[in-house]
Amino acid sequence: MEKRKSKTFFCSMVLAVATLSLISFGNKRIEAKTSNTDKRVTIEYWHVNAETQGGKTVKELVDNYNKSQNKVKVVAKYNPDMYKGLMQNLQAEVSSGKAPDIVQVGWAFKDYFSENFDYTDPEKLVKSVDPDHASYFKDHFLPNIMNLSKNKKGYIGIPYSISNPVLYLNKDLLKKAGLDENGPKTWEEVKKYSKVVQEKTGNYGLYIQEPADSWAQQGLLESNGAKIMSKGKASFNSKNGKEAYQLYQDMVVKDKTALHTTWEQGIQSFIDGKVAMLYTTIAQRNNVQTNASFDVTAVKSPSWKGKKVKLPAGGAMLAITAKKKAKKAATWDFIKYLYRVESMAKWTEGTGYVPPRKDVADSEKGLKQFLQKNQMMTPAIEQMDSMVSWTSFPGESGLEAEQKMIEMRDQILGGANVADTLKKTQTDINALIN
Questions:
Q1: For residue 216, which of 190, 192, 197, 196 has the smallest C-alpha distance?
Q2: Mean pLDDT of the chain
Q3: 79-102: string of b/e by CB count within 10 Å (b at 16+)?
Q4: Average pLDDT of span 159-165
């Protein structure tokens, strides 16, 4: 199903008209207009994967796909500032009368994307361009995983990247501080550990990721019993929300045992051995594991004392924004390549994202041997049952609402009063989305 809103969504490229050729995708033949010099259909793939978080794997997969056939050429485009940055760039591209053909849409922007952009329901696309594989999603995905990309009208995209936050540990630094190298189990213990690390070694105890989203902070608050949204309204200004952010601020501002900096610098500080604990996505597993020169491991996300851990599902779905039938068919051909067991395994190995397909982890062609050798993936897999939806602010002001969450984080970590800042931000967001 194609969804049309007030904004018109145009094709990203115009194919030069010269000769009419038939391009085959599976058992389906699609007519496409091509140039004399290159008969491949060119599609543009927008992603958010920097070099340290899957960018190299994106390039490898795209290059390998382009070399594997002569029907489609994929051009990958990296978008900085994560999923919010991609949405902003997409809005600008659409406003100029252009659009890519396939985009990564972060879970926090599912509603914003579906309400503001044209896309094609993947189930209906497959039935249209590749009817022999009409049951593709039912055959390869668990229902609860596919439903991550669903709204009331159908599927918005296809789950691609699934992650949750873990606590990476510099075991050498913890041992140097006289602490248990297996790390803390609760956020209260994280605070105590961090203070000991600072006193014994002069290093920071903790860094919590701070990219252009509030994903990690949602996990921190909701694990303490707060709710980012309730009944369609922002509701994080609660006793539990204030308590969680106060502990976080105390570590950064008062005790100076936690580092407050950009995501890239924070991760690099951990890799350089200047931070004992790093709270970030499992998708950083390869970067951390490859570059750390100390004894490093990862453990499950800390809980709050006496409370159940609730972790927002990180990562993204792939949404099909191609307009012309030939480009839709080309996009589907590329998607099938990305979701092959071997490609999914390569994606997980290169990033740390948990594979969305149900048959990848146990397959010999997939991750079976890899997971046996890479135990740092274990905590992310073990805490899958603790995952909740990443809050998606609805309406045309969804991006602005998420930006206010980021600004709230930065203000609090800069020393602003926690209670006052949460109250004002909640009021401002509710004024935007209601």
A1: 190
A2: 89
A3: beebbbbbbebbeebbeeebbbbb
A4: 92
Element (H, E) at 90: helix 82-95
Q: Residue 267's Cα: distance from chain center in Å?
A: 17
Q: Which neighbouring-strand residues pair with 104?
A: 318
Coil, strand, or helix at residue 352? coil
Beta carbons within 8 Å of 153's beta carbon, 6+ residues apart: 1, 3, 121
Q: Do the beta carbons of residue 339 and residue 140 sit within 8 Å?
A: yes
CB 382 within 8 A of CB 299: no
What would the two tokens of residue 370 be? 């890899």
Q: How many CB atoms lie within 10 A of CB 123?
A: 19
- Helices within 96-238 (DSSP H only): 110-116, 122-129, 136-140, 143-146, 171-176, 187-201, 215-222
pLDDT tens track for 14-54: 333 333 333 334 434 333 344 445 689 999 999 999 988 88
First to last CA, the chain: 27
Closest CA relative to residue 84, chosen from 417, 401, 366: 401
pTM of the complete model: 0.76
Query: What is the token pair recorded at 280?
Result: 């970030």
Q: How far is residue 406's CA from residue 362's CA, in Å, rounded to a whole number? A: 38
What is 225-289 written as a DSSP string? T--SEETTEE---SHHHHHHHHHHHIIIIIS--EE-S-HHHHHHHHHTTSEEEEEEEGGGHHHHH
Q: Within 13 A of 323's CA, how many CA atoms are on the CB side?
A: 16
Name the residue with tokens 């068919």.
329
Residue 164 to residues 34, 108, 213, 238, 399: CA-CA distances in angstroms? 43, 13, 14, 24, 22
CA distance 200 to 178: 8
